[in-house]
Design a protein that fits this description.
The chain has 316 residues and is an alpha+beta fold. The chain has helices spanning 3-9, 42-54, 59-72, 116-126, 134-143, 154-166, 232-237, 240-250, 254-268, and strands at 34-38, 93-98, 104-110, 131-133, 179-184, 190-196, 217-220, 224-230, 277-283, 288-292, 296-303, 306-313. Bound molecules: N-hydroxy-L-asparagine (SD4).
Length: 316
């Protein structure tokens, strides 16, 4: 098939009315910071990012602060403190960051550290590696000055004990609270962060998409950034956030780029996925978009001095 025709017909072979913009000469959105994050607690997280941006801070610092806010919230049962544990009652954390220079840091299967996103940042800033996992990640965190804390709150422990009675299989959309944050600062530079305790009552040792660069988060400072929430296994298999950014590079607007990435998942599941994935995307010119597979998905957007919650309907 000729390239041009392929672009016009889209992944499922369906005609789509998408107008492909030229990504080459993408305008940089300067002096108009934008913050985009997943779910309704993204609003409060965005506020933390805004504080940094108002002082002229950079996108990476702002994204980290936003993610830290969700990690500290004991009522958010999918991130940091108060996150629901795995099948063995252990709270295990995944997080990553990526900045405008293409640097990245990540931690997976980290335990007893309240701010995995900041450990991921340290991996990026202070080591020659991108990813540390498990006990090695914990040791690195402690040696970098992070305090160890028990993250299993009484509430989460009680939930886990209830679950132990029948071990009903949960899906991530039942406890969806992963925070992914995309930020553009006043210079127009892009960065992002993602942090989660993952799938409630998952197998001990399970790692999701959230620490995987390209899956839950990808930033290309020339084109845009994208991030995910939802069933990590399916995001990993389709390298979701990288794909969304690549679609924007091809000229798809942010929302359409998210939908094209979701079309891949729909196709792999014979048109009937029974789980949730949500993507958020931010383009270099400050345009944003979001899409989800099913039901609905809320995201928080700060732009032009307004921080508001939006809801997008599922594609099916
Ligand atoms: C995971 N993607 O561990 C995460 C879960 C999630 O909203 O996003 N929940 O698979």
């Amino acid at each position: 098939m000729k390239r041009r025709k392929f672009l016009r017909t889209g992944i499922l072979g369906l005609a789509s009315p998408v107008i492909l913009a030229k990504s080459k000469n993408m305008k940089n959105n300067k002096n108009n910071p934008v913050v985009l994050s997943t779910w309704n607690f993204g609003l409060a997280a965005n506020e933390q990012a805004i504080k940094i941006l108002r002082k002229g801070g950079n996108a990476m610092d702002a994204a980290e602060m936003a993610a830290r806010h969700a990690e500290s919230d004991p009522d958010n049962n999918s991130v940091g403190l108060g996150g629901l544990p795995d099948e063995k009652g252990k709270v295990t954390l995944d997080a990553c960051v990526m900045d405008s220079k293409g640097n990245a840091g990540s931690v997976a299967f980290l335990q007893n550290i309240k701010h995995p996103v900041s450990v991921a940042r340290k991996v990026m800033d202070d080591t020659k590696h991108v990813m540390l996992v498990g006990e090695g990640a914990r040791q690195f965190a402690v040696s970098s000055g992070f305090e160890e804390t028990n993250l299993l709150t009484k509430k989460s422990e009680n939930e886990w004990k209830k679950w132990l009675k029948n071990k009903r299989e949960m899906t991530p959309h039942e406890t969806h609270d992963t925070i992914s944050v995309l930020v553009q600062d006043k210079n127009g530079d892009l960065s992002g962060a993602c942090t989660t305790s993952g799938w409630a009552y998952k197998m001990h040792g399970r790692v999701g998409d959230s620490p995987i660069i390209g899956s839950a988060l990808f930033v290309d400072n020339e084109i845009g950034s994208a991030a995910a929430t939802g069933l990590g296994e399916e995001v990993i298999k389709t390298v979701g956030s990288f794909l969304v950014v690549e679609m924007m590079r091809q000229g798809y607007p942010p929302e359409q780029a998210c939908k094209e990435a979701l079309n891949r998942v729909i196709k792999l599941h014979n048109g009937k996925p029974d789980f949730q994935i949500g993507y958020i995307a931010m383009r270099k010119d400050g345009e944003v978009g979001a899409a989800c597979l099913k039901w609905s998905f809320e995201y928080a957007l700060y732009k032009k001095n307004k921080n508001k919650l939006y809801k997008t309907k599922g594609m099916m």
